[in-house]
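Forum: Protein Structure Q&A
Topic: Joint prediction for protein chains with partners

I've read a bunch of threads here and the consensus seems to be that you should model interacting components together rather than docking separate models afterwards. I'd like to see that in practice. Below is the full input, 487 residues plus whatever partners are listed. Could one of the regulars post the assembled result?
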Amino acid sequence: MALANVLGFKSNNEFDRSLQCQKTDNNIDEFCPTLNIENIAQFITLPPYADPAKYLKMVNEKVDRVKIQFLKGTTTLAFKFRNGVIVAVDSRATAGGFIASGEVKKVIEINPYLLGTMAGGAADCAFWERVLARHCRIYELRNKEKISVAAASKILANMIFEYRGMGLSMGTMIVGWDKRGPGLYMVSDDGERISDNIFSVGSGSIYAYSILDAGYKYEMSTVDAIDLARRAIVHAAHRDAASGNIVRIYHMKETGWEKIEEKDTNDYMYQYRDEKTMNF
Amino acid sequence: MGDDILSYNGGVALAMKGKECVAIACDKRYGVQNRTIATNFTKIFQYSDHCFVAFCGLATDVQTVSERLKFRTNLYELREQRKLKPVVLYNMLTNLLYERRFGPYFVFALVVGLDPKTGETYVYDSDNIGAVSDNVNLATVGTASEYIFGLGELFFKPNMNSDELFEATSQALLNGVDRDSASGWGAVVYVIEKDKVTVRELKGRQD
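Posted by a regular:
Agreed with the consensus. Here's the joint model:
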């Protein structure tokens, strides 16, 4: 789209999406320094009737057996420690009781120094974090420095707030490393944005929190931190029906994120049972 | 999992026929919606040397119906002075469930049995108000019943011996429960033959 613009290519099709993008690209200088959220609406069509929030609510609650229930059936966690931030997630996607997939990638690699996690509606998380990636890149180009985690999470929170009450479902954690050090923010669909050292989101978070709270020390080594994150996800996968399958662990360092591992939680469960740290 | 009463606790059971043998298997999860509380809750109950019933559904009703049925079968054996047969067992179950037609128990049942003299096999599938199927080759009940049915139909062959039957039942159950979040956490398989009943625990996914 930008390339087409540079080359002077004009599409004949009136309804072609590239035209819409062309308008945005032409107005790119008019972007406010903070954020021009209005442009996002050009890419997303709201339903073509009055009061979309009321209708969308019907689809989210049980009316005449139509129900799209976004239950945050997952376990994601992230915590800051001496050597950065560890992010660990499971990989199960459930639709009601049905396990729709056991290989979902719940860590979204926004750019080489920012990660986002996915909980709630997969489409919502994937889409908005990709929009966030775009805004982060534009910031980087204009300001010749990487965006801070605080700013990135604020951009996302503000975008989500525009759609508050319309049925977005997201419980995401934005993780990065900027000039203030490691950064961790939790952003959710009700517009909440908070920063802390330890977060866990999803139906399995209650089990993950127990393990994290029991073993967390800010000064722990990287190996211990990875082990703690792994155990937390494995225990949550065991107890929570909506979490499980594969555990993925990432380490956010000063030089950017590194993927540590991607292994089956079941193998760890039997291993921990042999070590007598798990009982079943 | 929503507010569906039959998936509140979860669980699944499968029964398959072979040549002069039957297998019945169930998972071992006891949970409350998303929370798994125990992994030793088997849903198969023995009523006679060669008669077994599996109950799936609301856990409290699994316990209550199995115990009430045991009460009736005990009295039957005392009064009649003879051992229970599978056909009698499923008739007693039908009546027990239909007595509560307008306030039913939330359990679906599988009745399996074998006649030790003739080797005739019985597998029956009951809904929660006592509608019993004919004597079938394969039956499943529970939250993962559809997934296991597909696999069961795939692995079933007529006149399997007890080893093949065990393999077919185990594979159908283990792989079926991996697609259901409310079942699993281990499994147990009973293979009933004319002279013995073999109970085996399966190593399944614990998530």
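Chain A has a mean pLDDT of 83.
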